[in-house]
Amino acid sequence: DLSHLLAMFLLLVKIWRSKSCAGISGKSQILFALVFTTRYLDLFSNFISIYNTVMKVVFLLCAYVTVYMIYWKFRKTFDNENDTFRLEFLLVPVIGLSFLVNYSYTPTEVLWTFSIYLESVAILPQLFMISKTGEAETITTHYLFFLGLYRALYLANWIWRYQTENFYDQISVVSGVVQTIFYCDFFYLYVTK
Amino acid sequence: ADLSTGHDEL
User: Fold this and answer.
1) CB distance B9–A56 less than 8 Å?
2) What is the ipTM of this complex?
């Protein structure tokens, strides 16, 4: 979670200090805001811990502030021409799958499932943008590294929880593996370059 | 475990 938090802070600090969101995919950031919104609908109904509640609020705030920076405050620096990933290619399959494969057919549960599936592919517009322009600022690569590391660390956490609590969540685990795989090529480049 | 309720991960 701290790796995830660090990633989001890095991105915000980068945008704020440079007063620019060049090289950042607004579409990926909108998807992340949508991920947190649909996942944290239980913010007021399902209390886990103070840590859990505080982190949810911080994640939501970070996501929305980032979107605000890109599409409002620093919109003149937004590289709209290169942020061309077609969101419907992600949203249509993800919506379909969240209705087909979920734990229970209730609105909040389907939306939670949607958020898990969507998160696994939400970075693709950003990765597409980088491959299209062929460049990324150093700070952007740090952002991506910690964002990918967070899900890779969750894989270890899930193995630990299965061993110690016999707890496992197939939807999270399969999506988490898929999500981590999308970062592998990037991890390789990050470490070698 | 009932996985349909109480997701405790972020």
Assistant:
1) no
2) 0.87
